[in-house]
């Protein structure tokens, strides 16, 4: 659960601490899939529940929130796979083109950012909103489904990255790959950016549920 606390002109988010989920079997006593250690059956069930939740709850809720300008409140912070490819020091927001719909995108809905309830394996929270912003809906890459290795491979998919850059800027330019992005990171008000997005999306944390 989360509480939204106004302070002056800003709103801050106070979230409940979520314990790290255990990797052992979560089946009820007497019906365990394995005697001890990591349970691949429960991992598969959890991944399936997470996938259904993203597709049937999270994405539709995000896509109900729209804007006429990319980024969040005039600030554009692309996901890391793009920042490591494109060395530009700043990213300018752009207005939606005629007929274009910009929706709220999380921009990094990987399994690492999806917290599950330890007992039910239902989705409990979505983490890491610092790269979120308003973009065409196809900008939200389906990174919740790949394995960790496949997720890392998206950093090398330069053809897709160029398509994503065009969605942000409306154009594609020649880019030089970054080895370090500390200069860029120093400019990112990531905590504030995450608060804006999390607050905009607070409806998701007010009772959306999935059936098994």
Q: How is the secondary structure organized here?
A:
Blueprint lengths: L1 E6 L2 E6 L24 H23 L3 E2 L12 H4 L18 E4 L8 E3 L6 E4 L6 E3 L12 H6 L4 H12 L12 H4 L4 H11 L12
Antiparallel strand pairs: 1-2, 3-4, 4-7, 5-6
Following the backbone from N to C, one meets helices and strands in this order, namely EEHEHEEEEHHHH
Our Rg estimate from Cα atoms comes to: 19 Å
Count of individual beta strands? 7
Mean pLDDT: 75
Domains (count): 1
The total count of helices amounts to 6
Shape: globular
The structural class is: alpha+beta
Task: List key phrases describing it.
disordered C terminus, two-stranded antiparallel ribbon, alpha+beta, globular, 212 residues, 13% strand, 6 helices, 3-stranded antiparallel beta sheet, 28% helix
Model description:
By secondary structure, this protein is of the alpha+beta class. It has one domain (19-205). Helices cover 28% and strands 13% of the residues. It contains six helices and seven strands, in the order ββαβαββββαααα. The protein has a three-stranded antiparallel beta sheet, with no helix packed on it. A two-stranded antiparallel ribbon has the order 1-2. A hairpin with a 2-residue loop joins strand 1 and strand 2. The longest helix is centred in the N-terminal third of the chain and has 23 residues, at 40-62. The chain is globular, with a radius of gyration of 19 Å. The chain starts with a strand and ends in a 12-residue tail after the last helix.
């Amino acid at each position: 659960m989360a509480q939204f606390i106004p302070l002056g002109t800003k709103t801050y988010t106070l979230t409940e601490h979520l314990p790290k989920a255990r990797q052992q079997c979560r089946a009820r006593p007497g019906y365990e899939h394995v005697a001890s250690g990591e349970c691949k059956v429960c991992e598969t069930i959890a991944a399936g529940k997470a996938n259904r939740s993203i597709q049937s709850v999270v994405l539709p809720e995000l896509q109900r929130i729209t804007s006429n300008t990319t980024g969040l409140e005039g600030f554009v912070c692309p996901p890391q796979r793009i920042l490591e490819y494109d060395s530009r020091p700043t990213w300018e927001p752009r207005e939606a083109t005629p007929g274009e719909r910009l929706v709220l995108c999380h921009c990094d809905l990987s399994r690492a950012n999806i917290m599950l309830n330890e007992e039910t394996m239902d989705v409990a929270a979505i983490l890491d909103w610092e790269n979120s912003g308003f973009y065409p809906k196809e900008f939200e890459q389906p990174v919740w489904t790949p394995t960790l290795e496949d997720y890392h491979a998206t950093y090398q998919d330069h053809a897709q990255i160029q398509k994503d850059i065009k969605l942000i800027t409306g154009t594609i330019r020649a880019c030089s790959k970054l080895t370090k992005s500390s200069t860029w990171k120093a400019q990112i008000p990531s905590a504030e950016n995450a608060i804006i997005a999390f607050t905009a999306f607070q409806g998701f944390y007010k009772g959306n549920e999935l059936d098994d």
